[in-house]
Structure formats: C-alpha cells, structure tokens
Amino acid sequence: MYVWPCAVVLAQYLWFHRRSLPGKAILEIGAGVSLPGILAAKCGAEVILSDSSELPHCLEVCRQSCQMNNLPQLQVVGLTWGHVSWDLLALPPQDIILASDVFFEPEDFEDILTTIYFLMHKNPKVQLWSTYQVRRQVWKTLTFCM
C-alpha cells in the first residue's frame, strides 16, 4: 500500500477546511492507507473508512492505519463499487464523501459513479470531495468538490 499524491492533496484540502469538520459524518471510499479519512477523524469528524470487500488486505490496511493513529474506534467497511450490499444499505447519512484517486481505472468509473450516485440519492445534501490524477505523459493532480 502506498500514499498516492492525490491523498496528500485531499488531506491538505481537509486541513485547510479543518474548522468545518468537527461533528461531520464522513465516508472515505477506496481508502487504502486512509490518509484523508484519518486526518478528518483527527480534526473531529465522525469517519467511516471503506475499501473493496473483495480485497480483505486493503481493509486490514485501513484497520492498521486506525491503530497506528490511535483511532481504533473508526469503523472500516467493505464496499464493492457498483454493488448494493447490506453494508452499503446500512451506512448512515453522510455529510461528505471522500474519494482520493479512485478514478484511475476507466473500466471502474461506471461502478464508482453508481455507488456515489446511490449515496447521493440516499442523502442529496452530501458533498463529494475528490482528487484524481490524470495519467498521461504529463501527470497532473486535480481537486474537485461537488
């Protein structure tokens, strides 16, 4: 597992907005090592970390990140993009969805957007805070919020 540049950019964005985070319900999708989610939790947000239910190693990495950062209370949930699971249905309403560098495999875009659409339809006031890196000859890191 690796901290990708997009995770650092999203963490910086969260830090810039840290005063608005206490008490916010935040879900990080595709969390991996969970840098943005861990930072949000350290800033007072109520965070749920998620990664693929099909990759138990990724979920274990999320749990290890929580332990190493003295945040054992954070919930880690396995979600598979594009699939409606009991874990997805059981998620409480969120204020913010964090998505750091989840748009890297074009064949996954539809499943990711389906999952995000489901979460936004469930709670129309939720915001999506995402960073992604354009993977071409010249790599760029971008941030956008919805």
Task: Explain how this protein is built.
The protein is built from five helices and six strands; from the N terminus they run H-E-H-E-H-E-H-E-H-E-E. By secondary structure, the chain is an alpha/beta fold. The chain has a single domain, classed as Vaccinia Virus protein VP39 (Rossmann fold, 3-Layer(aba) Sandwich). Strands 3-2-1-4-5-6 form a six-stranded mixed beta sheet. Helix 1 (5-16) runs parallel beside helix 2. The longest helix is centred in the C-terminal third of the chain and has 14 residues, at 109-122. The model has no long low-confidence stretch (mean pLDDT 90).
CATH architecture: 3-Layer(aba) Sandwich
Say how many strands there are.
Answer: 6
| Proportion in β-strands | 15-25%
Biggest sheet statistics: 6 strands, mixed
CATH-defined superfamily? Vaccinia Virus protein VP39
Per the CATH scheme, the topology name is: Rossmann fold
Name the helicity range: 25-40%
Name of the top-level CATH class: Alpha Beta
Q: What oligomeric state best describes the polypeptide chains here?
A: single chain
Number of domains: 1
- Overall mean pLDDT score? 90
Structural class: alpha/beta
Measured between the Cα atoms of the first and last residue, the distance is 28 Å
The Rg value, from CA coordinates, equals 14 Å
Q: Numbering strands along the chain, what is their spatial order in the largest sheet?
A: 3-2-1-4-5-6
Total count of helical runs of at least 4 residues:
5
GO cellular component, one term: protein-containing complex
Protein name: Methyltransferase 23, arginine
Family: Belongs to the methyltransferase superfamily. METTL23 family.
GO biological process, one term: methylation
